[in-house]
Specification:
The chain is an alpha+beta fold. The protein is 18% helix and 32% strand. The protein has one domain: 2,3-Dihydroxybiphenyl 1,2-Dioxygenase, domain 1 (Roll), CATH 3.10.180.10. It has an eight-stranded mixed sheet, covered by helices on one side. A hairpin with a 5-residue loop joins strand 7 and strand 8.
Length: 125
């Protein structure tokens, strides 16, 4: 048992070392530009990519994708070194490879091929 708060925190952080990371959360928006304007006006984040169909915002610990309807479902994305074990990977226009899974409640989970991700991802998370 930890004797100090620092020991407890160190033990907790060590326990997280083997966990998967969350790359981003993706939300559907009616108007990408309007959504980007609202998020950047309301929160401390920065735009790392934007076009007419989607945008990626960086926060300190995570990224948020804002997507026009029709391309991808709302989802959470988790990078894995073994993404291909979940099925055939599809390449996105940015070169990232992934597969979409559906959990038991119908939520979409994008499993990203970690080897296809750029080392500079635009956030601290």
């Amino acid at each position: 048992m930890a004797k100090t708060a620092q020991e407890a925190e160190a033990r907790m952080h060590g326990a997280f070392d083997s966990l998967d990371t969350l790359d981003h959360v993706a939300l559907l928006v009616k108007d990408v530009a309007a959504a980007v304007a609202w998020y950047t006006r309301t929160f401390r984040c920065r735009v790392i990519y934007q076009d007419g169909t989607w945008a990626m915002l960086a926060f300190r610990n995570a990224r948020l994708a804002l997507m026009a309807p029709g391309r991808h479902p709302p989802h959470v994305a988790i990078p894995r070194e073994d993404a291909a074990r979940f099925g055939p990977l599809e390449a996105h226009r940015d070169g990232i490879r992934s597969i979409y899974l559906t959990d038991g409640d119908g939520n979409s989970i994008e499993v990203l091929d970690a080897s296809s991700l750029s080392p500079v991802r635009g956030s601290g998370g």
